[in-house]
Design brief:
By secondary structure, this protein is mainly α. The protein is built from five helices and two strands. Strands 1-2 form a two-stranded antiparallel ribbon.
């Protein structure tokens, strides 16, 4: 499951940055964000980077920033375990579109296999 979640996260960022076509559907590039960098999130962020009011809306009791930072690092460490294909796509380069299309078509369930992705 961790592998699938990581793959989906990388593909989501790639599609957001580069857009995607499938038959009559078009996802235009939404933003030109930075490349996928799990280390940005998997680090000690207990120095005021979390909005405690936002956290309070999501969790009761409200964890401390240190607890939240440790939980992210512990439970989402798998996001940093990129394979070679994921490292390539994590750069979010348009020139890697053929590779992204193959990765999308190879997702479990085969829903994107024969939909004319380009």
């Amino acid at each position: 499951m961790d592998t699938l979640v990581r793959r989906l996260a990388i593909l989501k960022i790639w599609v957001d940055a580069n857009g995607l076509h499938a038959a009559e559907t078009f996802w235009k590039p939404g933003h030109e964000g930075p490349p996928f960098n799990p280390e940005k999130w998997l680090r000690d962020r207990s120095t005021g980077e979390f909005d405690e009011q936002d956290i309070g809306a999501l969790a009761v009791p409200v964890p401390t920033a240190t607890e939240l930072s440790e939980a992210l690092c512990t439970h989402f460490r798998f996001l940093a375990d990129l394979d070679d294909d994921e490292r390539l796509l994590a750069r979010v380069r348009e020139q890697d579109r053929p590779h992204a299309l193959r990765a999308l078509a190879a997702l479990p369930g085969g829903r994107l296999t024969d939909v004319g992705l380009y």
